[in-house]
Amino acid sequence: MPEVTSWRSGPLTDRVRCVLAPNPGVMTLEGTNTWLLREPGSAEVAVVDPGPDDAGHIRAVLDAAAADGGRITQIVLTHHHRDHTEAVPGLVHATGAPVRGGDHDAFDDGERVRAGDLEIEVVRTPGHTGDSVSFLVPADKLLLTGDTVLGRGTTVITAHTGDARGGDLGDYLRTLDLLVELIDFGRVERIAPGHGPALDNPGPVLRRLREHRRGRLDEVRAAVEAGAEDVDQVVDAVYGAGANDRRWAAGQSVRAQLDYLGVSFG
Prior knowledge:
It holds the Pfam family Lactamase_B. The protein has helices spanning 55-66, 82-85, 88-95, 169-184, 202-225, 231-239, 247-261, and strands spanning 10-11, 16-20, 33-37, 44-48, 71-76, 99-100, 112-115, 118-124, 133-137, 142-146, 190-193. By secondary structure, the protein is an alpha/beta fold. It has one domain (10-261): Ribonuclease Z/Hydroxyacylglutathione hydrolase-like (Metallo-beta-lactamase, Chain A, 4-Layer Sandwich), CATH 3.60.15. The longest helix has 24 residues, at 202-225. The two termini are 36 Å apart.
């Protein structure tokens, strides 16, 4: 089970509210964060990542959106993974709202999306998956990152398997560089992740993530040079043989790192 924290549903800013899904776990932390975006005084609501197919969660999203006469007019997805998207059919059935991102129509980098008077900017952030995007709320200098940056810990880079939606470590490292630039230029001051608590001072967190990834690359490279002959042996060398509940994730990350290093075990 995830570490217990005070993170829960509720408003993050005057424009952004979280409805926390009831799907906690090792990979999802406290659960999936479904975000509702709405300009104060406007009725139109954009939903970011509806979350799992859970009737209670869908009802909670609808109720939160309907507060003060709000209505859901669009659904946008940071990426295609099921813990972010399974509720899409139920939410579409209830609202008729169009859907963008994930397995639906893709976004262009820099595209502006409007929900009533609220403007949202699309930022392509591939790495965790090939289709990952983040959403910038310029009025709040807030970036919704899906699984690109989590509220705690590090994301899994899903191994590239020929699917354009697969993860890629090179893309992820470039994405981290981009996010650091957005912070350094003063465009982002806060991060609202797909799982875990919001990050109020994301600059140091992102820099630590970059160093962590580079350190892992060094460890994988050393394991291969020491004679590791398959992915499992690299996982044991880097993560330890006891990494049972996270072994799948560790294997995915190792495969992504091996791809980046150009190493194949045939």
